[in-house]
Design brief:
The complex is a heterodimer. Chain A is an alpha/beta fold. Chain A is built from six helices and 15 strands. Chain A folds into two domains: about 90 residues, ACT domain (Alpha-Beta Plaits, 2-Layer Sandwich); about 100 residues, Pectate Lyase C-like (3 Solenoid), CATH 2.160.20.70. Chain A is elongated, with a radius of gyration of 22 Å. Chain B is globular.
Amino acid sequence: MSIQHSNKAIEIKISTVVAIAVILHDNDLTRLESELQQLTGNSTDFFAGECAVVDVAHIDCATLDWTALIKLLRTYGIHPVAVRNAPELVEESISKLGLSIDLGTKTRQFSEVLPLDQQEVEAPVTEAMIADVLPAESQPDLLDIPTRLLPPMIIDTPVRGGQRIYARDTDLIITAVVNSGAEVIADGSIHIYAPLRGRALAGASGNTSARIFTLSMEAELVSIAGIYRTFENGFPVLPPHSPVQIKLNGDKIDVTSTTHSTTN
Amino acid sequence: MARIIVITSGKGGVGKTTSSASFATGLALRGHKTAVLDFDVGLRNLDLIMGCERRVVYDLINVISGEANLNQALIKDKHCDNLFILPASQTRDKDALSEVGVERVINDLIQMGFEYIICDSPAGIEHGAIMALTFADDAIVVTNPEVSSVRDSDRILGIIQAKSRRALNGDEPVKEHLLITRYSAKRVESGEMLSYQDVQEILRIPLIGIIPESEAVLHASNQGNPVIHLKDSDVSLAYQDVIGRFLGEETPLRFMNYEKPGLFKRLFGAK
């Protein structure tokens, strides 16, 4: 993967940070402390200053002593950075403590995060785009999963320069060409049954197991979970006319032929 | 039922106005009542190519702003009785080209019994180009066989998909046609130019015709005579084929293969 070092003093990029989730089921601090003690075997360096998102969905926030809670967590090496599922009433006091409000379960404003090339999304909005996400921490019942499966977004017309398509929380399947200057994005994997000549960004919200498939690899840029690769010096040599898959291998993006991927 | 056809390309200088003039003339020569509208406000050219620049009194913007009616502004072509030209304004601000105004003009033309309304788009993807394609039923995308023109055509096809009235209303999409102009079979063979197959592979819309590169176009433009009138020139034949295909005839492609001049031709030197 080619990482371009620039002379800029600051760069803003999308990045995925691993954080632990602290899900509170009680707002009694003494109970919380005793359970933390048990959990960590009384060692205060059990958590090594990890970033944490505090989920307060299951407790009554009004009676919670936020300052004491943060202090308690810090003593155990947990570094709270954000609060999730807080009622709007307490959002302001949380912000005052220097924590941010995690909108993980609310509709995110994706277009504000990713710099728009020139134009707004010109693709039809599908149900998938407006559907809600499951909170990452919640453990859905196994029986629940089929009903929660989001249908993929399917596009049957060529995606042309300047157009941008985003499949929120699902896979993107395109049966026509993606031309240069076009941008196709999915939170899941991207399947293109035609040449890919534009940009394809899979796993846009951090799914590192997302992949990109195309019948002909001619892309300007591919990205998986924020790690990107460009092809200034040409494409990897693959058997001619073989479909290609692009996946993440550590922090590198691998471009391989699907027909030869077992031998690689 | 009248059909509204936009001639567009994204890139400038690829032959939109030349194609608009010959396409409109070709339809009129076949007996269809046709109007051709110049949307290139500020840089009008169509009237020059059609050879009616000295007869321009009122223009599209005058009609839109209500300073003239359509009958006053439409210029009858000097060759064809059923061809009319609505020139663009050279002086007005292009913001005067309002969507409501354009729609009214097009509806009035339909009321007047025009069968085909050809909208000659300006280059670029700005307001004028959007206005030209907004009401289209068909789009003829004029493309030269080189990468930047192909890329711009791709862009304009995306805009047609997004911004045309048909797209916004969820109607049957605008019918797209690829017209490749300034095609030099010789340069394609020597690898200097994209082949028509290459262009089609990228754009993936049906090909309506290939217009060969020719000096006849320049001569015709300078004389204010649409090149389709130059009977027996390959360009004229190619445009006539395009009209035929547009009207549903099955016509094989021609002028896409390079034939090496034979001995006779080389000796007696047709240029």
